[in-house]
Amino acid sequence: MGRTERLVVDLSSDLVAAVRDAVQSGVFTSESEVLEAILRAWHGHGEIEEPDIETLRAFVAEGIADADAGRLVDGEEMFERLRARYCEIAADRSGG
């Protein structure tokens, strides 16, 4: 990383809590690292590969089969899994 500068930002309390949670969970080492990963992804330095349509269809079919078989996951549990996965992706992209 090149030269750094200090930047002060105002965020809503829920966003501040999300940033702090990401640090407390150990995925990131600092609030700055969280914001840097987000900004790099947004700015295009961490382009995410999109799955092809056949991969998406397979995921949908698997989800339908799971639902038909009664294997459902609580919504909050799934959101937690997704948050953890996004944090892993961001950590991989930031070198953490």
What does the secondary structure layout of this molecule look like, with pairings?
Elements: H1 13-24, H2 31-43, H3 53-68, H4 75-94
Helix pairs in contact: 2-4
Beta-strand fraction estimate: under 5%
Output the number of helix runs.
4
Kindly name the structural category: mainly alpha
Q: Helix coverage percent of residues?
A: 55-70%
Low-confidence segments, given as residue ranges, are: none
Number of domains: 1
Radius of gyration: 17 Å
* Count of strand segments: 0
For the sheet with most strands, the description reads: none
**H/E element sequence:** HHHH
Q: Give the distance, in angstroms, between the N- and C-terminal Cα atoms.
A: 13 Å
Assign an overall shape. elongated
Keywords for this entry:
64% helix, mainly alpha, 96 residues, 4 helices, single chain
Written description of the protein model:
There is one protein chain. The chain is an all-alpha fold and 96 residues long. The chain has one domain. The protein contains 4 helices and no strands. The relative contact order is 0.14.
In short:
This protein has 96 residues and is mainly alpha-helical. It is 64% helix and 0% strand. The chain has one domain.
